[in-house]
Amino acid sequence: MIEAIKDFFVTHFSPLVAVFFTSMIPIIECRGAIPLGVALLGTSSDAILKVMTVAIIGNMLPIPFILWLIRPLIAWLKKKKILKGFTEWIEKRAEKGKERVKKYEKLGLFLFVAIPIPGTGAWTGALVAAMLQMRIKDALPLIGVGVLVASLIMTMLSFGVGWIINIF
């Protein structure tokens, strides 16, 4: 999948723009954007910091809007028969994460976003936070720090652990 995204973006955008837009895609987020950045820009220290920074910014950009708009949007979508299946899919996705997050509340939300495994991430974390009716001012920083940690993990996996040692 990364290869198909890479081919599309390489033909239409600069590498950092490709990383930015890829990190905004639900499910892929920074978990896919960082390896894409490695493929496009290489493993120099300069490339590492640029890729990680751009991926984090792109991943976080939609999150305040999701937190603010998802509940009214889902309520509106439920009223549309044609979109009922989509609405149910969104709610099922939130329910899966909701139980994990609910048990540990704020720490749970942070860990849900921070651990880069399938089905987790900023988009799903924001959806879960909204469904749990967490306040935006509480959820947004937790998701932000979670994205930062997930990005560090993905960067270490993509570039190798040695790059952290070289930065410090």
Structure overview:
The chain has 168 residues and is an all-alpha fold. It has 2 domains: 2-60 and 153-167, no CATH class; 63-147, no CATH class. It has helices at residues 2-12, 15-23, 29-41, 45-60, 63-78, 84-114, 122-131, 136-159, 162-167. Helix 1 (2-12) crosses helix 2, helix 2 packs antiparallel against helix 3 and helix 7 (122-131) packs antiparallel against helix 8 (136-159). The N and C termini lie far apart (33 Å).
The helix content, as a percent range, equals over 70%
**Percent of residues in β-strands:** under 5%
- Overall 3D geometry? globular
Count of extended strands: 0
Count of the separate structural domains: 2
Number of alpha- plus pi-helical segments: 9
Features:
about 170 residues, mainly alpha, 2 domains
Task: Break the fold down into its secondary structure elements and pairings.
Elements: H1 2-12, H2 15-23, H3 29-41, H4 45-60, H5 63-78, H6 84-114, H7 122-131, H8 136-159, H9 162-167
Helix pairs in contact: 1-2, 1-3, 2-3, 2-4, 3-4, 3-8, 4-8, 5-7, 5-8, 6-7, 6-8, 7-8
In short:
With 168 residues, this protein is mainly α. It has 9 helices and no strands. The longest helix is centred in the middle third of the chain and has 31 residues.
